[in-house]
Amino acid sequence: MTKYPMTVEGENSLQVELKELKTVQRPAVIKDIAVAREHGDLKENAEYHAAREQQGFIEGRIQDIEGKLSTSQVIDVLTIPFSGKVYFGTTVTIINLDSDATVTYRIVGDDQADIKSGLISVSSPIARALIGKEEGDVVVVKVPAGNVEYETDQVEHI
Description:
alpha/beta, 5-stranded mixed beta sheet, two-stranded parallel ribbon
């Protein structure tokens, strides 16, 4: 079975969402379905069909989260001795060698990725190129516009 890496924060976020779905949203949609059934003919009852569709979405999301949590490998970067290398959970500052632009990313699991917040997926091209590198190493990332060279400027455990 394949284990999927996840940060502690990522696991907590999924646990909170799962609890919300099971304790708030699922009971609410079940109630909505019961109310819609009381309105009579189900074939032409838009409220009923909308509630059933919402129920399907909620149940699917619950299964998705439970599956991810059951196959996750939670990695707490703060418990790993600092080695100066880039790996899952580290925060890395890189410099684009063409434009001298500096950007800082934290390498996280797929569900937690948010480029606007500086969180990139471990399966992204940049993260895959950076994994295992140290400060001062140069990496080449293949992007649709060609190859981009980055220098690893700083690696942190945050």
